[in-house]
Amino acid sequence: MAPLQTSQQTGTPLSPAELSYLHTSLTLTPPIRPDSRTPTQFRPLFAESDILPSTNGSARMIWGDGGECIVGVKAEVEKNSISSGGPRDWIETNVEVSGQRDDDAFLGMTVAESLLVPGSGVLERLVLGERFHWKIFVDILLLTPPLSHPATLLTLTTYLALRNTFLPKLVSEAAEDPVFDDDWGNGLPLYPVDRIPPPITLLVVNVGENIFFDPTREELAVGDVVLAVSICEKKVVGVRTLEGGSGGVKREAVKRVIKESCEVAEEVFSSLNGVGEGD
Amino acid sequence: MSRYEILSPEGLRTDGRRWNEMRRFSPKMATTTAADGSSYIEHGNTKVICSVNGPIEPRASSARNSERATITVDVCFAAFSGTDRKKRGKGDKRVLEMQSALSRTFASTLLTILHPRSEVHISLHILSQDGSILATCVNAATLALVDAGVPMTDYVTACTVASYTNPDESDEPLLDMNSAEEMDLPGITLATVGRNDKISLLQLETKVRLERLEGMMAVGIDGCAKIRQLLDRAVRDHGNEMARMGAL
Amino acid sequence: MPRELDPTINEKSFILDALNQKLRIDGRDLDVFRELELSFGDDYGLADVRLGKTRVLARVSAEVVKPFTDRPFEGIFTITTELGPMASPAFEPGRQTEQEVLLSRLIEKAIRRSNALDTESLCIVAGQKCWQIRADVHFLSHDGALVDASCIAVVAALQHFRRPDVSIEGEKVTIHTMTERVPVPLSILHVPICVTFSFYLDGEVCLVDATLQEEQLRQGDMTITLNKFGELCQIAKAGGLAINALILLRCAKIALVKAGEIAAIVQRRLEEDAAVRVRRDNLLESKADNERA
User: Domains in chain C: how many in total?
Assistant: First the structure.
């Protein structure tokens, strides 16, 4: 069934007839996407890391549709007594959207929640002796929001920034006030290569029997269901349906989404890890 | 006196520059496709990203003027831009003052009379602060406005000059302050328009002898001319690149 | 949002034509201030400045507070300004307009950041008690040159103000009332004076102390703050018409002369007021019903 949506509802400039055509072409086997990508192919993106010397880690990413995001990670030493909420407060995430008056609290929470995957061991790495810990501020600046949903852009940039975040090495004893090694070359990575990396969130849209990665705004508009899949290393750690879409989701589709997400994510991880190694 | 020397007896500053040397200045044009015009400037460790939209229909009715275009400026300090993480609210007086100074600087240089009832919106993001921030914002906005094709009379370029007091009480102007120099020395921010070196913006925020102003201004005007050459080269390089790609 | 009424086309061409012939409509020369009237209240720290039709009132008050933790040896000095509808119907109460923010930043930079008031002298017990000096600026009537007038009002009020004397014995701090001990003046390090220039006709003509109408027609402006020692405290030329550097330097030299003149007027009025006070106090003491020790 073709979606009965008008352009007012979807925010795209397409007419119902055009939306219907798009829906049909996406349900074919094999499906045809308007930009002739394969279902798992991403649009071109530009990414760079370690761009800001005043941060512990930073990254910038420009998405195919013009969305641009900069993430800066800063670490500060804090007394254990300050954070009342315990270790869960040790990582603070803020999303600032250019041109908007207030921070986007919902997006910030989404990213923050996914960072605290149990078992990642990141909180243990923030402990500084008995009385102090690192407080990590992840400030996400969305310079131009992408036309499609920003979740993927945000998490990929955050991933890249966190992967390149280094903390100075502690040289003092556990009971003392923390003293650090002056040499940045001895800095310790927040997410070492052999440990569980920060998660990313991929957007997947399901149309009929087919599923598509990195959907455009138009594809999101005709999708049956839009899923945000959070992946950490090789495991899917969360699947959420986003608003939009016009139908339910089949169980087989979810299974396939999860399976293919893992494969796609692996490629994404390996290409992102390549960023910054070249130079 | 401060802990370290701003100017060594050999005439070198903390980062190894001489009195009339600027930090590395690398302008980039058309950095994003999402705005009408955009630019990214790295001046030493000060990094500013700018995007310009316009002339567009005014977003707020207060920005509608039936005789000329209105110029609105948003300046945003990223929370991670300084040494310590600090969030600046939108209502910060210093930010408002910067916005107003930038908007008035460009109001007199853009040919706003050609686009009545419209708005030119300049949005500036400061990603990293190391002195000369207002000056870098002016330069970034100029480049983005050129990229956006907003009609303007000439380049507006800006730089800063500090006034250093030698141990023998004589004074020496230092071109292009970094944040350490900004902290310890009095200095001016100066913006000139075009080749005839007229001054559109002049700011001084710390006490300094009146006699020193002339020397500082002379060095500043030369610095602005130098930056104008660098910006002009960036614009021409970008134009050549566009022509080569067949965009023109 | 209410707006200041723009000058009519006739007024505009008349004023600009006159300026072209180096004439101002109130007959002043281009670089002459309107007559400065300065009077003080019965209390210490109240200064009333009139510059033509512009009238600004500044009141200075003191209070004992805890100093900021990052500056335990310094007192606190704040200046508050609020443009209300009393000065001009174009100002709305409560809402901070851009003009108001710029004005308060300028005064702040001119007086507070140039260290006109020695804040270290306001410390009573380090880290625990200090004086907070507060200058409230009220705008009563707006006819141009608000910055210049309010700067004069604040520096005059600061010099006029007397704070209660304090004595410390060990841990005990006593604040003596005004009648108990002679109140002490604030320690003023220098007297900054703001001079605002308005530019017309592509910088050919620059005026000092522009009236409201002249301000509305100007193409650019610059405020220079300096003291009589020839120290620049602040320059603000935030955009507007681009001006030749030589003209700006000439303005700075004019400003130095003006600052000296104004500071002298303020000084003279302060001395006159002090003389009146001495006479009045003597009169009070010699009254028959005065209790004699």
Answer: 1
Q: Is residue B102 part of a domain?
A: yes
B10 falls within a domain: no
Q: Which of C226, C237, C245 sits opposite B210 (nearest CB)?
A: C226
Over residues B175-221, the pLDDT tens digits come to: 999 999 998 899 999 999 988 889 999 999 999 999 999 999 999 99
pLDDT in tens, C132-180: 999 999 999 999 899 999 999 999 999 999 999 998 888 888 888 888 8
Across residues C261-287, what is the average pLDDT?
87
What total number of domains does chain B contain? 1
B67 Cβ under 8 Å from any chain C Cβ: no
CB contact under 8 A, B213 and C232: yes
In a domain, B150, yes or no: yes
ipTM: 0.89
In tens, the pLDDT along C54-106 reads: 999 999 999 999 999 888 899 999 999 888 888 888 888 777 788 888 899 99
CATH number of the domain encompassing residue B199: 3.30.230.70
pLDDT in tens, B123-178: 999 999 999 999 999 999 999 999 999 999 999 999 999 999 888 888 889 999 99
- Nearest-neighbour CA in chain B from C106: distance (Å): 9
Tell me which residue range forms the domain holding C160.
22-282
Interchain touch C–A (≥3 Cβ pairs closer than 8 Å): no
**B197 CB within 8 Å of a chain C CB:** yes
- Looking at the domain assignment, is residue C5 inside a domain? no
Domains and CATH numbers, chain A: 14-43+199-279 (3.30.230.70), 46-193 (3.30.230.70)
B47: closest chain A residue by CA: A52
CA distance A65 to chain B (A): 8
Contact A144 B128 (CB under 8 A): no
In a domain, B139, yes or no: yes
**Which residues from A are below 8 Å from B130, CB to CB?**
54
The amino acid that residue A184 corresponds to is W
Domain assignment of residue C290, yes or no: no
pLDDT at position C135 is 94
Determine the structural domain holding residue B217 and report its residue range. Answer: 25-245
Its pTM stands at 0.89
Does residue C287 sit within a domain?
no
C165: domain CATH number is 3.30.230.70
Cβ–Cβ below 8 Å for A99 and B74: yes
| Residue C31 domain-assigned (yes or no) | yes
- Residues of chain B with Cβ-Cβ distance to C232 below 8 Å are 204, 207-210, 213
Residue of B75, B80, B125, B129 to mutate for A, most A C-beta atoms under 10 A: B80
